[in-house]
Design brief:
This protein is mainly alpha-helical. The chain has one domain: Four Helix Bundle (Hemerythrin (Met), subunit A), CATH 1.20.120. The protein is built from five helices and no strands. The longest helix is centred in the last third of the chain and has 23 residues.
């Protein structure tokens, strides 16, 4: 039986969605039919949803956006002190839109995919530690 879904006002639901995106990015990378660009989109979505989880947790409103830097800016403006490693997550923004359409960007390399996954992991783990009190 699938877990009970919660509404958009619950930060744990955002984290659940972020974990799902990250799991897809990691699980499918060796399938020959799967494009690295699509997996990078999932990595971007994992980071985006993780940041939105923190914004929800702190009751900070946010627009519908895929811009990681804009979300980080909202967190900073709300008084949060962000680790330096999170600033690098803005590199994922480029995987949000154009990468999903044929011919608009160069193909993604395996190395770029692995970097995207690593960035998404860092953001998710930071968000989980803040919201759930977990640390690795």
């Amino acid at each position: 039986m699938p877990p009970e879904r919660r509404g958009p006002g619950d930060p744990t639901e955002w984290l659940r969605r972020a974990r799902s995106n990250l799991a897809r990015a990691q699980a499918d990378r060796d399938l020959p039919e799967v494009l690295y660009e699509d997996l990078c989109f999932d990595a971007q979505q994992a980071a985006e949803k993780s940041l939105k989880a923190v914004l929800v947790y702190h009751r900070v409103g946010f627009p519908k956006t895929h811009d990681i830097n804009a979300l980080l800016g909202l967190l900073r403006a709300s008084g949060m002190d962000l680790p330096d490693e999170l600033r690098q997550a803005d590199a994922l923004t480029g995987y949000a839109v154009d990468i999903r359409y044929p011919g608009l960007t160069e193909p993604v390399t395996r190395e770029e995919l692995e970097q995207a996954i690593e960035l998404a992991k860092r953001v998710l783990h930071w968000a989980e530690a803040l919201i759930l009190g977990t640390a690795e």
